[in-house]
Predict the structure.
Amino acid sequence: MARDDRPNVYWDKTSPEPNVDCLIIRASAIGHSCLYELIAAGQGFIATAFPDMILAAFDAGVEGEPVVIQMLRDLGWEFDESGFQEEGHLVVGPQTYIRFHPDGRAVPKTKEELHVVEVKVFSEAVFRQARSHGVASTFAEYAWQLSSMMITNNMPGVWVYAQKDKDGVVRPDAPLGMEFVSKPPVPYVDLIAKAAAIRTGVEGKDLDMSPRPCDDPNHWPCRYLYLRPEPEEEVIEAIPAIDEEEFESLISRYQAYAREVKVAKEADEARARLRDDYVLRWGSHRKLRSAKKLVTVVPGKSVSYDFDKMRKDGVDLDKYKKVRETPYITVKDLD
């Protein structure tokens, strides 16, 4: 299975209606929170590249899928050999379709009927979340994706999710979870409504000439930010690849000093130097993130008084107030 790099929304006149321009919405994308991005894709605007960390996650899923399928075979699941990545379409309007490629169709060992099988590969943290709160709680798009397949195939579905190791690899003995879904989590009528909204937007005024606002300016990554730049405070920017190692090294040292308690004064001084170094290099960005760190620069001020002059003059304190700009940063681990 190769990674599908086609846009989230695009026109196709070869299938499912030959020689007819049909709007295709990828099942993995129709649940995306930002309608603006889906419209931009359908209008033919070029999306910026995904960050490397997301591409790595995609690749881990592609490479891990056959490993998970074999694990299920070993557990006694019987697969429909024609169902792997078989292209399917759900009609959601005139010349409008949701296109999908299920990971498989199988009769699980404990069941008696075919199920649409969707394989997911998660990090340890996301795996725990899926086990505790359900797969749909991890990424909203998953429920929409599985629903379109279940409705088209008129069969129940199952999410099978595996935990990748620290190298991003799914081993044959990896932790495995299963979530059986008896009815589509997203109703057909909601899929139709979302598709209609996308088509209306795609056929409307070009976004680069339109005042239409972004629907979800805080989501990351925004792959069409260049069409309508958001205010700086709303944007979380990715560190350029050339700076990422240096960025994470500096922030890790900053965090290490923050935890130091035996030499508090020295630690504070070291942190201050690292903070000033960070602000000098990247202080123009309110929020920056790498694969492991999210850093926010928070404006701040410190106020002090010149006590020597106070003692000499005895004048109003405000006359000798000194204000110094002292931004500080907050760091959030992302793994």
In short: The first helix runs from residue 35 to 42.
